[in-house]
Amino acid sequence: MTRKITTILCLFFAGALCLGAAIHLEQSQKNNKKQWNEANATQAFTMSLTRSAYDRTFRNRLIASPESAKQAVADEGQISVPDEVVILFHEDKFNENYHVFDLPQFDENARKNHAYRQYIECCYTPW
Length: 127
What we know:
Blueprint: H1 2-31, H2 38-52, H3 56-64, H4 66-77, H5 116-119
Helix pairs in contact: 2-3, 2-4, 3-4
């Protein structure tokens, strides 16, 4: 009986050690990633765009979904992409499936017409 308990305890502690090592490895890999900032993000995007020109599998990861694109850029640039960042790639320059707009300034008293073309160009200046 004592031998059985000792064996079970040894297995339990061995499993705990393996789990601890796996968690430590995962954390150290995350910590080795670059921080999300203008310079690192620009480099990660450049690396991703460059690879997309010759690696079809990687290119497919970029266009599959925003989640897949984010992971591909993170992997390629070894960068931690914040959860709130959305990354989207598409292949056609004039793709009619994507409609991204900047909203007009909010004014609850305004009833002015806000034309489509003024807001389709969207919302940020690239880095």
